Amino acid sequence: CIVSYLDKILTEGQKKAIHDQNFVIVRDDEKYKIEVVLRWTEATDEQIRSYVNGIRTHAGGTHESGLRSAIGKAVRNYMEVHDIKIKGITIENSDIREGILGILSVFLSEPMFQGQTKEKLNNPEMTATGESVVRPALETWLSGNPSIADAVVGRIVLEARARQASRDAAGEVRRK
């Protein structure tokens, strides 16, 4: 089960989660099966482990691109719907995904891999499929869990402010 795998990574990596409940979605139909589990942590890196038919895709691929896009769009839409505006800061997708720990597992009948090592999925339809499956579910989950959504948005705003302060400081150093 990928949920217990994510919990194991969280514990072994000694990452502190900013919320207790995982976001989990499983979608299974004739063409594909997608399983996703996500949790935001206090870590400064984004860690998404992706798999296709049980094979680790170290270089990611179209399924991972769809997941990343879905996360960014879902959080932005949540912030827009709930009228969360932060003056003087532009939220970037990297701010949204910073600290995220996730596992993406996809089962396809005809996967197209790049190269012999199967490190990257190239099925073009998986970007849109991943986004259409994850985005609405993540938006619903955030809306249904306001305390988690507040923690996630707070984390994102802190990261955006830190990034902006870092850029401002670097600009100041260059001017001097």
Question: Brief overview, please?
Answer:
This protein is of the alpha+beta class and 176 residues long. Helices cover 49% and strands 20% of the residues. The protein contains five helices and seven strands, in the order H-E-E-E-E-H-H-E-E-E-H-H.
Salient structural properties:
single chain, 176 residues, alpha+beta, 5-stranded mixed beta sheet, two-stranded antiparallel ribbon, 7 strands, 49% helix, 20% strand, globular
What does this entry look like structurally?
49% of the residues lie in helices and 20% in strands. It has 176 residues and is α+β, with helices and mostly antiparallel strands. It contains 5 helices and 7 strands, in the order αββββααβββαα. The mean pLDDT is 92. The longest helix has 30 residues, at 146-175. The strands form 2 sheets. The protein has a 5-stranded mixed β-sheet with strand order 1-2-5-3-4, with helices on both faces. A two-stranded antiparallel sheet has the order 6-7.
